[in-house]
Amino acid sequence: MNLNGTFRVLGCRPLQLWLLSLVLWLPWLGNLPLRDWDESLVATVARSTLARSTLARAGQDPSSWLLAFKWDEAYLNKPPGLHWLIGGMLQQFGEAEWAIRLMPCLLASVAVPLLYLLRRALDPSPADRGAQQQRERSALMAALVLMTLLPMARHGRLAMLDGTLVTCSLLLWWGWISSRHTHWHALLAGLGSSGVLLLKPPALLGFLLIAIVISAWDRRPWQPAAAAWLSLGCLPGLSWHGWHGLQRGADALVMWGGQGLGRVAGVVGGNRGAWVMPITEVVEGGWPWLLFLPVGIAWAWRHRQQSSGRWELGLLIGSAALVLPLRTQLPWYSHLLWPPIALLCGEGLSVLLTKGRPRWVGWGIQMLGIGSLLLALITVLWPQAPESASASLILAGTGLLLGGGGLRQMSPQARRRGLGILLLGWGLALLAFWQSQLWLWELNESWDPRPIASRIQQLPPAAIVELKGPTRPSLGWYAGRELQRPGAAGPLEHWLVSKKPSPGCLPVRNAPAIQDATPSEPGTQWKLWYCQGEQR
User: Fold this and answer.
1) How many helices (H) and strands (E) does the chain have?
2) For 242, how many CA atoms within 13 A lie in the half-sphere containing its CB?
3) For residue 493, with 0-12 CB atoms within 10 Å meaning exposed, 13-18 middle and 19 or more buried, which class applies?
């Protein structure tokens, strides 16, 4: 299977890589409810910001123009860049889960062709045809690895900021690198910077520092013309922050300080974690491509006198330096590590296709395939195992077993065919995984809020609803109202979502009882209770 020839026949390779990513990432986008955290929070801010923008356009609240809101309060944690786009989807298609996840998925998937373009820009003018083929092969392999990484694809499907942040960082770095030869490409780096400023602004300091340090190592100083284009591209992001500062004063600094740089030195929201958490996420989710990472690192080290080796090593080290020291750690912070890992794995895969070495990688892939097939057998024989998991495991195991065998062959054509089988099996396994409804495993940590939320929607608009227990933004999203903490209603009539009733509260008739997936006590269920107050 000649992958290079296939993509040339299809046409523009970056466009085709993006379309192929969408074929792999978009199916069954809305078959599971929004999760906690942060999908429901992002959706709530998008809906609230859209409502305020509508009032601003009508002239009723002009000061809220282009600002973010959460319910009726100012939202200071993040800029509303992605929230505007999600709000547009809500306006066009309603509040279906697929509509909320559509725009983040589209933007996150652009990272695949951008990684391809970035790798090509590292060697803009190969000396001979062989070097040109090597560059094209490495760029294509890196893009395919990024496309089929389970964490990258899974997280790219979620209504969160991190997938789009990866795309903006790659646009920044690609524009920065290619501007060495075409100055106006620095405009792309500036637009990527504006994207970061409208998502997670403090991250821009780290992304720019990485680019500056690697450029100094690579001895490629910037020209004044490129700097002017970069500044022009940064204007949209900088203009919004200027407007935000004028409207909200010192509160505009929250997203830079307490919610931004504060995560480096302190713990935000109780999300304490060690540097080992991102490494654990990489080790858990990087298969089968992590087998190529040692080969890729060795290749980059041998080519450290060239731009390609310096940038690939620098991006890995720089991204790790951004993520690992954070005292506030969440599993999705490791998302920034996947592009440099994919670059290096792409180099390792390219070496194997060209030279047929190291052969142990093929053996390792086959061992993973055998392990997947054994797990599939267990899911078939074990009554408590999810039945839908077996199809994904069988497809992945078959692709790994046959594809790994092909990668061990002496013929380059046989190795390319083996890679094609591996990609086909792994891609089909991902599609089966999305269809199985197992891909959003965080939902197994608690109860589905939709049944109780549907009952809350039937209450009067002025009704006070309290939640006793862990905060559930998804319950508020589906209920269409902000939930209060216990005691907020005081002696007034109110409704309570709780496992156990408070004194004087009665279960609401026809309200469902929801079993907790991880109950603290056997048989405990979440219910909606009516609490009659002394006065309304």
Assistant:
1) 22, 7
2) 7
3) middle
Mapped onto helix, strand or coil, the DSSP state of residue 270 is: coil
Instruction: Report the amino acid identity of residue 423.
Output: L
| Beta carbons of 326 and 260 less than 8 angstroms apart | no
In this prediction, residue 536 has a pLDDT band, given cuts at 50, 70 and 90, of: very low
DSSP codes, 414-432 = HHHHHHHHHHHHHHHHHHH
Structural element, H or E, at residue 529: strand 525-531
Listing DSSP states for 283-301 in one string gives HHH-TTGGGGHHHHHHHHH
The CA distance from 144 to 419, in Å, is: 11
Residue-wise pLDDT tens digits, 371-422? 999 998 888 887 666 666 888 999 999 999 999 999 999 999 999 999 999 9
Q: Which two tokens stand for residue 465?
A: 């609803």
Terminal CA-to-CA distance of the chain, rounded, Å?
A: 73
Q: Do 473 and 36 touch, CB atoms closer than 8 A?
A: yes
Which residues, in sequence order, are CB contacts of 276 under 8 Å at separation 6+?
Answer: none
Sequence-distant (6+) residues with CB within 8 A of 93 are 99, 102
pLDDT in tens, 289-346: 999 999 999 999 999 999 899 999 999 999 999 888 877 667 778 889 999 999 999 9
* Phi/psi of residue 505, nearest 5 degrees: -105, 145
Question: Per the structure block, which two tokens stand in for 90?
Answer: 């809500």
Q: Is 164 exposed, middle or buried (0-12, 13-18, 19+ CB in 10 A)?
A: buried
Nearest CA-CA partner of 168 in 245, 65, 79, 247: 79
Residue length, the chain? 536
223-239, pLDDT tens digit by residue?
788 889 999 999 999 99
